[in-house]
Write a structure and sequence with these properties.
Layout (H helix, E strand, L loop, with lengths): L2 H19 L18 H10 L23 H6 L3 E3 L16 H19 L4 H4 L5 H23 L19 H18 L16 H17 L6 H12 L13 E3 L10 H5 L6 E3 L1 H9 L5 H4 L17 H10 L7 H4 L5 E4 L1 H13 L7 H15 L5 H9 L10 H13 L3 H11 L27 H4 L1 H9 L17
Antiparallel strand pairs: 1-3, 2-4
Helix pairs in contact: 1-2, 2-4, 4-6, 6-7, 6-8, 7-8, 8-9, 15-16, 15-18, 16-18, 18-19
């Protein structure tokens, strides 16, 4: 895929949209040779990667593995993967609200445009040159479900059914209803693929329908697990439907859902851009100490050694004054060269993640598989994913008391290993921590938020009380603690 040409096309579409708004000038400035319908393959690639930055040190923000999704920084602080080294406000939970415009106005809008043009009788024939209408719709619906799952898991009730319709006054749908529709969308979209032309611009699976179906089933399984406390019956039903689907799910690293970044600055790993000339974050002492205690070989894959060759985590959640004093006298580990490499892929869903979901389902009695076997397979998959597998070390690791699960602690052990395996996907780790309570993370004693606890959600954008007042007020009325970060989304139960 030629990224340069793709984004040139996107820029042209934007220009066309602006010209369309200037109707008073008639045909005077209209190029008769220009396309009037978007190149949907370009929109797909843009939805996957995000819009390229305009500055040399800028990062890809949108997309399915950008800084707003799988590689979001702040959730990494919440789950204590990283610590801030200079300005610790986010580690002290100073965040009150977060904006969602880039989700709705960029990535979700790109996907909705693909859907619209493949269902409109006036345009569907034209855009079919970029892939059969059904294949385009299937891919766009699956990715739209993924993005909306991120959005609703961040805020709770959000605009959904009537979103993306060019209006600011949009009702907030209850998260329970959103989840029900996400399950439906993933089922229907997976069944919508046909034998026609593959969707061009697919840099995730290169048009491989089998892998798209595994991705859809895996996402269904993940979302089903979210409901274990609030609606265990639906959780089990939806999980089993996806788990038993003939298309399968992501169970080997060969099927991992990853965005492959490039060594070109505009399309590099967003974490590389984050450390371009700066070192505002270090790997937290919580993560480093856990890996050390387990003699876990993922430590050098996750963290860089200090100048003296040791791995030292940066204490989590210190005040600025304490940070200055600490960093003046101590070294600390940055993320590893592997994590920060320009071409390091962005992991969206991995085999290790899904094998741990399988282990949890077995531990809950939903499936007949052996929970411990699935758990061990997940650890191996994670080690292989990071290139640190060694048979002798692996045998000793899974037999060690700190790793070997018992009947009484298997869910806790699964939770701990899930936290380790998801790194550096803080968004997913934050959702799983909120759902399960594992690992047993303690808030910083220097928290500045009202609850003094790790945030459970983001407060709504501060523009909503003005631009969408009635819908905002109704949604806030459904939150037990109001529009605060200590309020819980629907599935997040004590």
């Amino acid at each position: 895929m030629n990224f340069k040409h793709k984004f040139l096309s996107i820029s042209l579409f934007t220009g066309l949209g602006l010209m369309a708004g200037c109707s008073d000038f008639g045909d005077m400035n209209v190029n008769p040779n220009a396309a009037t319908t978007p190149v949907t393959s370009a929109l797909l690639t843009a939805a996957m990667t995000g819009i390229p930055p305009t500055t040399p040190t800028g990062a890809l923000l949108e997309g399915i593995a950008g800084r707003l999704t799988a590689l979001a920084v702040e959730p990494r602080l919440f789950v204590q993967y990283w610590s801030e080294s200079q300005y610790p406000e986010n580690s002290q939970y100073a965040t009150t609200f977060a904006d969602w415009n880039r989700y709705y106005a960029v990535t979700l809008q790109d996907l909705q445009t693909i859907i619209d043009y493949n269902t409109n009788a006036d345009t569907k024939t034209y855009v079919a040159q970029f892939g059969s209408n059904n294949n385009q719709l299937a891919v766009a619906r699956i990715l739209k479900a993924y993005l909306f799952s991120v959005v609703t898991d961040r805020w709770g009730d959000v605009p959904y059914v009537n979103a993306l319709k060019q209006t600011t006054a949009v009702p907030y749908d209850p998260q329970q209803a959103i989840y029900a529709d996400l399950f439906k969308e993933l089922r229907e979209a997976s069944a919508q693929f046909d034998n026609g032309r593959a969707f061009q611009g697919d840099i995730l699976f290169n048009g491989n329908q089998a892998r798209w179906k595994k991705f859809a089933n895996s996402l269904r399984m993940i979302l089903a697990m979210r409901l274990t406390k609030v609606d265990p019956a639906t959780a089990r039903t939806e999980f089993l439907a996806a788990y038993n689907d003939a298309a399968g799910y992501i169970s080997t690293n060969a099927d991992n859902a990853t965005i492959q970044f490039t060594d070109v600055n505009q399309f590099r790993n967003p974490d590389n851009a984050l450390f371009d000339g700066r070192s505002d974050y270090g790997v937290s002492d919580v993560l480093v100490n856990k890996l050390k205690a387990l003699s876990d070989p993922r430590l050098p894959a996750y963290a860089a050694p200090t100048d003296n060759g040791d791995y030292l985590g940066l204490p989590y959640g210190l005040t600025r004054e304490l940070l200055i004093a600490y960093t003046n006298d101590n070294e600390f580990s940055l993320p590893s060269a592997k994590v920060l490499a320009k071409t390091q892929p962005g992991y969206i869903i991995t085999a290790a993640q899904m094998l741990l979901a399988k282990a949890e389902a077995a531990a809950r009695g939903w499936i007949s598989a052996d929970a411990r076997t699935a758990y061990n397979d997940a650890i191996r998959a994670s080690w292989e994913q990071w290139g640190v597998f060694d048979a002798t070390k692996y045998a000793a690791y899974i037999a060690s008391p700190a790793v070997l699960p018992t009947t009484g602690d298997i869910l806790a052990k699964i939770g701990d290993q899930r936290w380790l395996a998801l790194y550096p996907n803080g968004q997913e780790a934050w959702s799983e921590w909120r759902r399960t309570g594992f690992p047993d993370l303690k808030p910083t004693p220097y928290a500045v938020n009202e609850s003094k606890q790790i945030p459970r959600r983001y407060a709504y954008p501060n523009s909503e009380p003005t631009l969408n007042a009635a819908a905002y007020t109704e949604a806030v009325g459904r939150l037990q603690n109001g529009d605060k970060t200590n309020a819980r989304v629907w599935w997040d139960k004590p």
